[in-house]
Amino acid sequence: MNGFQSCCFAVLQLQATYRNTLKHRETLKFCRFGRGWNMLSWIRVSSVSLLFASLLVLPSQAQNSEQLEVGPPPLHRAEPPAPGATPEELERRGDDLRVDKNFLDAIDYYQAALKGSPGNASVLNKIGICQLMMQRYKEAKKSFERAIKADRQHADAYNNLGVIYYAQKNYNGAIRHYEKAISLKNDAASYYNNLGAAYFAKKQFEKAIQNYAKAVQLDPDVFERSSHAGVQAQLPSPADRAHYDYVLAKLYARTGVADRSLHYLKKAMEEGYKDINNVYKDNEFTTLRKDPRFAELMAAKTTAIPD
Fold first, then answer.
1. Which of 45, 87, 190, 257 is deepest in the core (most CB within 10 A)?
2. Count of domains in the chain?
3. Rg of the Cα trace of the chain?
4. Is the whole model's pTM more than 0.90, yes or no?
5. Does a structural domain hold residue 90?
6. Domain range holding 299?
């Protein structure tokens, strides 16, 4: 039975119930209001029934449309924290919920863990991450600041606070916190990636390239992971997006990862990178230019895909 048939069946049941009610109260109605009330009431209930059916059908019609709909707020889906659990157990359960993207429930477990371990910078930082992923930037900022106050050497908290500034387009603030994180921990590829993104947003491309190169040196997969988690890089125009992809193509060519270099080179062409012919002059592409796939890609003259 489809949605419309279910609605019709519900309406018929409503009408049948009303007819049965009329039979039991018919004498009383006739004495008080006469036969005209009976007919008028039936018309009213029929109208209400049709309105009820139309309201039930509307959601199924909306689902087939191309209109966006605001979803419900996040809901709790996990059992509440057990009273007798240790802070370590609560934190581990929070970690599992965060991995499953149950951020609201994860926060509950982290906050319960804090009651048994007040001032735990790692837990405060994790609360901030959940709030950040839920786009509760003000709350996340406070959590990261609390983590830093609890542990001035917590590099991740400085980096994550930088992400908040970046999301708010305060790139100078972001750069300041990323550099602080790097001063505390200089082998984290994501810190250099974030710093490169902030410089790129400021159109300081040379500094962006230097930091992206360091990120790739530390972790060749850093850009693949960054595209699936965290805050999206802010590239305000198609030209910026094209330039960004060209920069990544150059970085991967420099490190000898031909497949990814060709992938980002193709993306830059699809996005209409205006200086694509620089690929024949930039030294980073010297080895890639000898790859038959490079010649094939450039001969194809990939057409820019409009937004």
1. 190
2. 2
3. 30
4. no
5. no
6. 235-307
Instruction: Specify the pLDDT at position 45.
Output: 41
DSSP of 14-58, one letter per residue?
HHHHHHHHHHHHHHHHHHHT-HHHHHHHHHHHHHHHHHHHHHHHH
**b or e along 220-253 (b: 16 or more beta carbons within 10 Å of the residue's beta carbon)?**
bebbeebeeebbebebeeeebbbbbbbbbbbbbb
Does 43 map to a domain? Answer: yes
- Contacts within 8 Å (CB) and 24+ apart, 216-221: 216/189, 216/251, 216/252, 216/255, 217/255, 218/187, 218/188, 218/189, 218/192, 219/189, 219/190, 220/252, 220/255, 220/257
Q: Could you give the CA distance from residue 128 to residue 149 in angstroms, rounded to a whole number?
A: 14
Q: Choose one of 39, 56, 73: the last residue of a domain.
A: 56
| pLDDT for position 44 | 46
Output the six-digit token pair for 135. 């786009």
What amino acid is encoded at 207 in this protein? K
Query: 80 in a domain, yes or no?
Result: no
Mean pLDDT by 10 residues, the chain (307 residues): 51 52 43 40 44 44 59 75 93 95 95 94 96 94 97 96 94 97 95 94 91 91 64 64 90 91 93 92 94 92 61
Q: d(Cα 291, Cα 303) in Å, to the nearest integer?
A: 21
